[in-house]
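Homework help board

Subject: predicted structure for assignment chain

Our instructor gave us this sequence and asked us to write out the predicted structure in token form, then describe one feature. I got the tokens but I'm not sure how to describe them. Can anyone check?
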Amino acid sequence: MKIKIITTLIIIITLVPLTGLAQFDFNLENLFTGENDVQSNITLVDFYLIWSADTYVPYEYQGRALPSPGSKITVQAIVTAIGDTTNLKYSWFIENIFQSSKSGYGRTTFSFYASQRPNGYQTIKVQVFNEDRTIFDEISIEIPIVQPEVVIHSYQNHSIFSDQTVKTSNISSGKNFFFTAKPYFFSINKLTDLSFQWKFANQEPLISSAYNANVLNLAIEGKNDEKVIENSLWLNVVNKNNPQQKAMQTIRISIQ
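My token output:
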């Protein structure tokens, strides 16, 4: 009975280290042969960039929201690959300056604030690669920076009859006319983030940030002759949170 117990213990103690050594040798062999090297099994199929700007546009606007100075821009790298893309690193550059804090493994999205002036471009570049750089590609884009804009539309009795692309409007004495300002490309969450300053002829400016400050009711009274009178309507719009974002518009009004 004692002999059997001793024999069993010796067999267990002897086999356990051998099993561990066999497993260790297997891993080393795979390491040197590259059978477990996931990085080399990645193949890039497609690689491009898309971007968006966090600026305000009217709800009916079908174009693209463009960035203005100080607005937030988000760029995303779209990578189509065969294999595990979690082993890919991304290096982002603004105007060819490396952005280390926003680069690294899996950093496919890059956000920044526009620093170029209107009519300029923000140049963004990204490099994608694996650890040993057997895979490497780079791409860059130029993002246009614009000045915020404001467009004035005119209405009579709440019925739109023209937009002011020609910057002129004919109105009749004794009737109410409404002018609506539609801002574009401001970094705002709501219209009350803007200050609207309306000024007609030699009247005192009307400045407001109320929810309906973008609408002006203009009534001309006391005109008794048939002579046409011409005056100008000025509008100045400023982002209260970022005063460098501003827009001006002027339309010519003929009073009949």
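Reply (TA_rk): Your tokens look well-formed. For the description, you could write something like this. Residues 1-39, 158-166 have pLDDT under 50 and may be disordered. That's the kind of observation they're looking for.
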